[in-house]
Amino acid sequence: MIKVGQMNRLEIVKRADFGIFLDADDFGTTLLPNRHVPEGVEIGQYIDVFLYFDSDNQLAATTESPIAKVGEWGMMKVEGVNSTGAFVSWGIKEKDLLVPYSEQRGRLREGQNILVYVYTDKASGRIVGTTKFNKLLDKTPANYKQNQQVDLIIAEKSDLGYKAIVNGTHWGMIFPSDVFGMLFIGKQLKGFIKNVRDDGKINLSLQKIGTAKMDDLSSKILDLLEKKEGFLPLNDKSSPEAIFTAFRTSKGTFKKTIGGLFKLGKITMEADGIRLKK
């Protein structure tokens, strides 16, 4: 079944001087121009292409992969604005993606880099973008458990912290006390549910909460010590950046964890790092 706005595997059915024609099922055939045709392909072979509608509303194919397919979010640059809306570059050279004025949370300007959700407009059947995320999220109860790992997309920054899209279905908040490492709009990363409040709002953490956090980090430290012949050049004097690079955790959590491992007799502390105790 053909899925417009997605990658499809289509059969080559005809060759012409200007490209190859692909079997697009109910859409008939669609042209893949020569500039996108891989070398050595033959009639009868299958090729992976992205399908979209061109400016004439005709089905078009490309081997380029968009920044975001239908149903996905992606960071895109506003290339131009006209009476219809804003046009953003989404990785398809032949066609920019339209974000209509009715789908803009605030007026967009040329040159901006914005987070966009790509979807198919039911009325027109065209692929468009939106920055109005509220209509997409929090439509179902937030049935998450503490320390459940989730996929996050950083969507907004405010004085309260960072607002993130959780598993593509809910809003969540990362407060400044739970932020470490570099966060920026559009960044996709793993996170954890800190708690779901009585009003349904979700608080997030970039690491596990409580003893689960410590146990998880302890295992990572011991495993890495085994791989590094029993020594790591990290201790409670190391920089937060070095600790984050190695374990993606805060310096405070790292210090507590190695302190616990020292008390358990698992490691020894040295001036330039920690050593696995035999």
From TrEMBL:
Annotated ranges, domain S1 motif: 3-64, 69-132, 145-207
GO molecular function, one term: nucleic acid binding
InterPro entries xrefs: CvfB_fam, CvfB_S1_st, CvfB_WH, NA-bd_OB-fold, S1_domain, WH-like_DNA-bd_sf
Protein family according to the UniProt entry: Belongs to the CvfB family.
Protein name: S1-like domain-containing RNA-binding protein
Native organism: Vibrio paucivorans
